[in-house]
Amino acid sequence: MRTGNRRDFIRNASGMIGMTMLPFSFPEDHNRKRNNMISIARVNSDFVREPLIRPFGFKGGYMSEIWQSVVQVESDKGTIKTGLCSQSVLWSDARVFSGHSEAGGNPLMYAMTEYGLRLIQGQSFNDPISLLENILDPVLDYGRKITGHEDLRKTFALNALVALDNAVWLIYAHENGISTFDDMIPDRYRPALSYHHKAVASIPLMAYSIPVSEITQAVKDGYFFMKIKIGQPGTQEEMLQKDKERLTEIHKAIGKETTTYTRNGKIPYYFDANGRYESKDTLLRLLDHADRIGALEQIALIEEPFPEEKEILVDDLGIRIAADESAHTDEDALIRIQMGYKAIALKAIAKTLSMTMKIAAVAHENDVPCFCADLTVTPVLVEWNKNIAARLAPFPDLGLGLLETNGHQNYLNWEKLVSHHPHPDASWRTVRDGVYLLNEEYYDKSGGIFDPLPYYENLFQPK
């Protein structure tokens, strides 16, 4: 180790009968005031470079490693908590990635993490969300200076602040006597996070370089909701041709496979373009191709087809379009919803838990379904995302929550990373027949996010 669709938008979930619980009833004391002022006395940080199995391709680029930034935050009462983050320079702002060597881009995001820590040292706060709101713009401004991009994407700053935000939430929970994720959710955001699913679908990611044989094997292993990266490298014409060929190959391999989780019994496809399609016409040509080969009805959603700055309306495409990185904040999410986006990909592990709660609330208030997308994170961070996915309203036509998890497909040292999880052998940590089965123990333990992390905590011991 180195250190959606053409059917009407419906709200009544179906499919997996009996696997989704009704909205969860919060404890009677959930309205108690939490006005304990918390002061940050000391901060620290470190990082670990985790190699990947193979180059990981999306947004027209390829990553070979992922930096895991680790922060430690201590309050004036002596509460010490550790937060983790998996950095993704390519996802957060592809221009920064392409403008530097891979080893040169990662330190820029890490420097923003350090800057955020210095901002909160000696500061006091009532709740983590207000703290994030106070430091987000200063950290973004700092990032603009060090990257040289005056229009640096806000997701770059949010990604840099994930570890800090997680550590602050843990301090907040400890000093307010909170021991479960349910009780940690502020009242304002509880309507959007009111379910307790018994099962959450695990979505594997099929990047450019994943052989079709591995996609076929994933279906045999029980996975039934496929996330497929489109928008391959090259000109728009080259990209479109490659995507057509890739779709044809995949559909030929798994298009006739069946599942009990969907209304039509077919495997749903989830395309992620990461903004690579520069016009609506180009995307429509891909959809026409999908129609010709009989794959169109299996396209459940397309995520981020267009560059966000083009502000293309998507309400006339006949396919559920999802916003991901363009929904940087709750305000941006509302704009996307007004542009016709019919789903929001939440990333508590990329945009911070604080911002994710705000985005989830906006989507809920506008009857737009959400699901959780991955950032190729470690097993510990999967649990932060899973805590959100487990509480979202059922995704239409499926009747259960959705959670993308692709770390097991990409990290060279995945099993070692699993050993750093507080509950590596827990039944709810692993995927069975394409789903995470979430029992009472899972909700009692909140996926282990409140438990100690000895491996990462030891990074801060005197050398």
Quick structural summary:
The protein is of the alpha/beta class. The protein has helices at about 90, 95-100, 100-120, 130-145, 155-160, 160-175, 180-185, 210-220, 235-255, 280-290, 330-340, 355-365, 380-390, 405-410, 415-420, 440-445, 455, and strands spanning about 20-25, 40-60, 60-75, 80-85, 125, 195, 200-205, 205, 225-230, 270, 300-305, 320-325, 345, 370, 400-405, 435.
Keywords:
globular; seven-stranded parallel beta sheet; TIM Barrel; four-stranded antiparallel beta sheet; 463 residues; disordered N terminus; alpha/beta; 17 helices
What does this structure look like?
- With 463 residues, this protein is α/β, with parallel strands linked by helices.
- The protein is built from 17 helices and 16 strands.
- Helix 3 crosses helix 4, helix 8 (212-220) packs parallel to helix 9 and helix 9 runs parallel beside helix 10 (280-292).
- Residues 1-20 and 28-32 have low confidence and may be disordered.
Q: Work out the helix count.
A: 17
Distance between the termini: 18 Å
Helix content: 25-40%
Radius of gyration: 21 Å
Strand content: 15-25%
| Assigned CATH class of the largest domain | Alpha Beta
Number of domains: 2
Average pLDDT level: 92
What's the architecture of the largest domain in CATH terms? Alpha-Beta Barrel
Shape: globular
